[in-house]
Inverse folding.
């Protein structure tokens, strides 16, 4: 899922669907963003695959649907709650992985336009961001 999410972020969100994703890279008033449409873009196929796989006993579809759902769950907690603090549930976690993850994400958001961005994944963090972790 991380590879698929990376490619979708790189080529869809920073490509054809930049209109929806662009407000995620800018500070604007309001709790909701156009970028939140991606919840539906990924949740609807996940629900169809999960339900279809369950009721039709197609375990490949069920596994893919559950995989998308699990990644969406991780995305919500890691990206929306922890990184962007859309819900104020956690203080900054003092952990080298989460510090590196924050650094990589801040690098990604340092570009306000769709070009020249980097670090399109969510859970996989390039090694260079671990250099000063816990410092």
């Amino acid at each position: 899922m991380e590879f698929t999410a990376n490619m979708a972020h790189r080529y869809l969100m920073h490509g054809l669907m930049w209109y929806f994703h662009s407000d995620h890279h800018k500070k604007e008033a309001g709790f909701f963003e156009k970028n939140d449409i991606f919840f539906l873009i990924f949740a609807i196929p996940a629900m169809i695959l999960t339900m279809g796989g369950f009721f039709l006993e197609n375990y490949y579809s069920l596994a893919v649907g559950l995989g998308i759902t699990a990644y969406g769950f991780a995305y919500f907690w890691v990206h929306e709650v922890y990184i962007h603090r859309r819900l104020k549930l956690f203080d900054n976690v003092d952990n080298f992985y989460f510090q590196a993850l924050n650094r990589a994400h801040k690098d990604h958001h340092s570009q306000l336009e769709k070009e020249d961005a980097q670090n399109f994944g969510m859970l996989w963090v390039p090694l260079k961001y671990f250099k000063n972790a816990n410092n």
Notes: DSSP finds five helices and no strands in the chain.
